[in-house]
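Kindly inspect this chain:
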Amino acid sequence: MIPNSSSDMDGTKRKSVTISEKIEDTPKQDEDKLIQAIGEFGRWHVMLTMTLSAPIRMTAVWNHLGIIFLAPKTEFICAERRNNNETIQESECYSDCTEYEYKTDFVNTIISEWDLVCDRSWLTNFNQTACMSGVLLGSIVFGFFADRFGRRPALLTACTTQLIAGFTAPFCPNYITFTLVRFFNGAAVAGALLTSFILMIETTGISKRELMNCIVSVPLSVGEMIMPMFSYYLRSWTRYSFGLALPNLVFLVLFFIVPESPKWLISVGRLEEASLIMTKIAKWNRLPTEDMMDRVKIIAFESNVDAHKNVKATYLDLIKVQEIRWKNIGCCLTWFILGLSFYGSNQYIGQTSPNVFVAIAMAGAIQIPGILLSGYLCKRFGRRHTLIFLFILCGISNALLSVPDDWYYFKLFIGSTAVSSASGAFATVYMFTTELFPTVARNMAMGASSTVSRIGSMLAPFIAGLTATGPWIPPTVFGLVPFAAAVACFCLPETRGKKLKDHFGET
């Protein structure tokens, strides 16, 4: 409690104590007073983390990998030609073909629905490219939106867009509409992923961030594991799309339970709103709520909010501001290489089983050990050393995938190690990046990093396709680039045990 005035036992009044004087009398230490007020990871944090992480992360991986079951391997044959004098071969293209018949394990796919074969076959890959382009745009737009207008409106806008796009997809009348829907869905998924994670980490205590990060990351792998189940039982691109859209209804609950980030509110000078939200969180966590407004004022004073609240950060600040320029460059390089390496690691696992359902479920399952290991290593050794170790392990594993195919079990073990280490690195870099940047630019920094990561993922298939030129080229590239990321991580400052900064220039 911070009184304006107080009395001694004899009734004589002492002089009033201002907030600034109270702060000056308090020993300087790297403590987060906001977290002290609302708790490090109480009942409210568990509720919010589970409500956000499960639906948002699982639906995100369904969107990113959905093309696997929307456009699975499909054999075709020309059923009707204008010239019938020639023998028709299966999966052979003919310029005068007017109708195709399809053979697949599914009732229908987007390939059979819109004849995406022969001279239209490139449209299948273009659909996935459009989805990833949406992810790129969403990372940029929602990153800026969340830092300028708040985490809550950005998150709810992204979730609403994803909900609408999800239920629109099964009813698209043509390919163009379906591709546009996938584009907007990708943008919404990116926005929901970034803003939800930022909101959770800004309200989690320093000593519990690793735990929270593991809880948030595991649903990505679980979502990948259960995605084949939807496709196996639904067997139609329309029913499959509708089945994946149904869980999005959970997003409606978020309108009633997701608050604005009190850390962001304080950073922009909206102290009363921050006080009300912190009071509600403290009640949930069974902590004292007295004089919450005074605590908020102390936090604002320490962060020098009055001098910064009218300063609006932009993406240019990630380059112009010297203190974060090299952090941004290091993070972007790390994310780019990680996007490239993660694809390179996954390409082998997808080939270990002739059954696509088993292969995808396996790829999801082997990511979990890496995520859990990264949590332990981050807690024990810090973010930087954890990333360096995981990148080196991933690089060595990718390089060893060049051994002969006869070494099946060795390649399976090495491929699993590569995927697991890459997934652990992804989980770590999410947390590391949020800790490196101040509140006013945190989402934009994450958006920039996520954008270059998707560029890396989009370039990776071209590198993998160089096998025909030289079978040694893909494993060499995928094996060497993680070492460059390890060097970039070495140049970044450690953030373990440090509270999140709010503004540029804050010590």
